[in-house]
Amino acid sequence: MKRALARVLAGLIFGAGLALAGMTLPGKVLAFLDVTGAWDPSLLFVLGGAVLTAMLGYQLVFRLGHPLFDTRFHLPPTQPIDGALLLGSALFGIGWGIAGYCPGPAVALLAVPRNPEALVFLGGLVGGVLLAGLLQPGDASSAQDD
Amino acid sequence: MSLNPYLSSLAGGVLIGAAAVLLMLCNGRIAGISGMVRGLLGRDGVAVCGRLLFLGSLVAGAALVERWSGQVPQARADFPGWLLGLAGVLVGLGTSLAQGCTSGHGVCGLARFSPRSLVAVLVFLGVAMLTTFAVRHLWGIA
User: Fold this and answer.
1) Is the residue at A142 inside a domain?
2) Residue at A128 is within a domain
3) pLDDT tens-digit series, residues A53-105
4) Are residues A6 and A69 both part of a single domain?
5) A39 and B CB contact within 8 Å
6) What is the DSSP letter of B79?
7) Which residues does chain B have within 8 Å of residue A39's beta carbon, measured at their own beta carbons?
8) Do residues A86 and A54 both lie within one domain?
9) Are residues A9 and A69 in the same domain?
10) Same structural domain for residues A71 and A92?
11) Residue B85: which domain range?
């Protein structure tokens, strides 16, 4: 129950942060990625603010030895920098650079009723996830981001 | 209402980071969106429930702020639908292979000094910038 409440609160704050930061606006994201056009550098402050906050917060949290509502931290195992990481990151970069949605803002599209981009992009995203499952049938690890 | 883009971006980033810290503090979990979406397609009912709680709350949090700020994402009039769908496939496939996206690698991974995440971020950010250049300036789609 406590863990469920923590998920709800963290999700609310995360979604609010995405929208406040302008990350849910694909035009703004593409204006940031378009360094040769009318470049909008403000999204650097999103990444900077998020990483610094998480870096400082994690340092304090890890000193506790274990999370408040669980017996241990569920951190991803150390893995090598391999072809799947490089290829996957490159494919993700192509998709992000085309549309301006990474997964968080893509999910947040559901906040807007009747935006036709939600169905098309999220449909593609789910298809891509299922395709990866077919390509890597034995690989159920999702530790890095879960 | 109009917000200073730098201040609101910084404040939004701090909120995203704070949410990641909260999830680690309480549950010991990485706040990675692509992994949660991927996990929704798994068979573990309890885990699916937890991910749905987070993702559903994310949608609610974004909706509240968008209503307050008036900055609501609009569908683009001239953007080809097939290209949008293809981009979605690439994002789903790529983040699955790389086991992370802007949140899992970009925020949480960098925050815990993961070399894998640093490489992932440099690759997807660089490729995204090249792609946006190609689509907008070579191909003429904006």
Assistant:
1) no
2) yes
3) 999 999 999 999 999 999 999 999 989 999 999 999 999 999 999 999 999 99
4) yes
5) no
6) S
7) none
8) no
9) yes
10) no
11) 5-138
According to the model, what pLDDT value does residue B43 have?
Answer: 66
Give contacts of A125 with chain B, Cβ < 8 Å.
Answer: 37, 88-89, 91-92
- Range scoring the smallest mean pLDDT among B48-52, B56-60, B85-89: B48-52
- Flag whether the pTM goes above 0.80: yes
Q: How far apart are CA B60 and CA B135, in angstroms?
A: 32
Interface of B with A in 40-69 (CB under 8 A): 41-42, 49-51, 53-66, 69
DSSP 8-class letter at B137: I
Please judge whether A75 and B99 are an interchain contact, meaning their C-beta atoms are less than 8 angstroms apart: no
Asked whether B2 and A46 are in contact (CB, 8 A), the reply is: no
Which among A75, A99, A125 is the end of a domain? A75
The total domain count for chain A is 2
* Residues A97 and A114 grouped into a single domain: yes
Residues in chain B closer than 8 A to A91 (CB atoms): 90, 93-94, 97
**A49-58, A110-119, B109-118: which range is least confident on average?**
A110-119
pLDDT tens string B30-50: 999 999 999 998 766 778 999
pLDDT > 90: what percent of chain A?
A: 85
Window 6-25 of B: residues touching A by CB (8 A cutoff) are 6, 8-25
Residues of chain A contacting B23 with CB distance shorter than 8 Å: 6-7, 10
Q: Are residues A16 and A62 in the same domain?
A: yes
Residue A103 in any domain: the answer is: yes
pLDDT at B1: 53
Taking residue A2's Cβ as centre, other Cβ atoms within 10 Å add up to 11
A13 touches chain B (CB under 8 A): yes
Which candidate, A83, A146, A20, A44, places its Cα nearest to that of B101?
A: A146
Tokens of A135: 């390509």
**Boundary (domain end) residue, out of A50, A75, A100:** A75
State how far the Cα of B87 lies from the Cα of A73, in Å rounded to an integer: 33
A126 part of a folded domain? yes
